[in-house]
Write a structure and sequence with these properties.
three-stranded mixed sheet, 11 helices, globular
């Protein structure tokens, strides 16, 4: 039995079809935890066991983890909470349920940078690493998917790209860093969940095919969209003020700011890209398949 949290999220919606395709031949049963089962396609609901509720809830994870062999664990960011409450606090009931039900393997969505000198002041990333430690302390075999920023983050900039030909962030325009498509993260998660021959605790970097700077992204978007796109660097304090103005928890906003500053200081650098850590989807491909339709819609 494999339990999937956040099955309709950015990563989960790619992961679930992969598991559904492979599970029958392997004799695997699938169970999902979701607040809203109606968001699952009818064809999916017919093939999985559904536990309704939040996977941050003690009763929900206790029911969901009973008889489970493996769990895909993803904490949905909650901007109403502090980073500590949002990651470690949310995960604490699951950690107890993992122990209580003797779950053997967990694959979690985490972040790059654990061994980087700035990792202890990286805001949301630091909170994610603390979550990893909490899960590892249960004694399960654990693989933390150590991810950089996602291509999909740029979908938040679709209106600005469409209307002004501009996307905004706070890092230096020439700061090269790994970036990854969520579909590639899902593929790595599926492989680990289906082949549970691994033991112990390790990070699994998922680095995308190459490092790219904001200027590189602007160039590629210009080529793929057939219209000029440029990058504008925003001061971190301006970003912080804007987010607080939206009503987000101030400690959560500071966690975003600290993460962004750490990334600008090279948080995601230093992990070697190899055949095992690279993932296949290029930014060009992602732009053509995902960003362009969104911008032109």
């Amino acid at each position: 039995m494999i339990v999937i949290t956040a099955p309709t999220g950015n990563i989960g919606r790619h992961l679930l079809p992969l598991l559904l395709e492979a599970a029958p031949a392997r004799g695997e049963e699938l169970r999902v935890i979701t607040r809203d089962p109606a968001r699952l396609p009818d064809a999916v609901r017919e093939r999985v066991e559904v536990i309704t509720g939040s996977h941050g809830d003690t009763e929900v994870v206790d029911r969901a983890f009973e008889g489970a062999d493996a769990v895909f664990w993803l904490v949905p960011p909650d901007s109403s909470l502090t980073p500590v409450d949002g990651w470690t606090g949310f995960t604490r009931p699951a950690a107890k349920a993992l122990t209580a039900h003797g779950v053997g393997h967990v694959v979690g969505v985490s972040a790059l940078g654990r061994d980087n000198p700035v990792a202890d002041r990286a805001g949301l990333v630091t909170a994610s690493h603390a979550m990893d430690d909490l899960i590892a302390e249960t004694g399960v075999a654990y693989r933390a998917l150590a991810n950089p920023s996602f291509f999909e983050n740029l979908l938040e900039e679709v209106d600005s790209i469409r209307e002004k030909g501009v996307f905004v962030d706070v890092v230096a325009a020439d700061r090269k860093a790994p970036l990854v498509a969520v579909a590639d993260i899902a593929a790595v998660a599926a492989r680990l969940l289906l082949d549970r021959s691994w033991t112990g605790v390790e990070d699994v970097p998922v680095l995308g095919p190459e490092d790219l700077s904001p200027n590189d992204l602007a160039r590629i978007m210009t080529e793929q969209l057939g219209r000029p796109v440029r990058y504008e660097r925003e001061p971190i304090e301006d970003m912080r003020t804007t987010l607080i103005g939206y009503g987000l928890n101030e400690e959560f906003v500071q966690g975003i700011a600290d993460m962004k500053q750490a990334k600008d200081d090279g948080l995601d650098a230093g992990v070697t890209r190899t055949a095992d850590t690279a993932s296949p989807t290029t930014f060009e491909q992602w732009c053509a398949e995902t960003l362009k339709p969104a911008v032109l819609s």
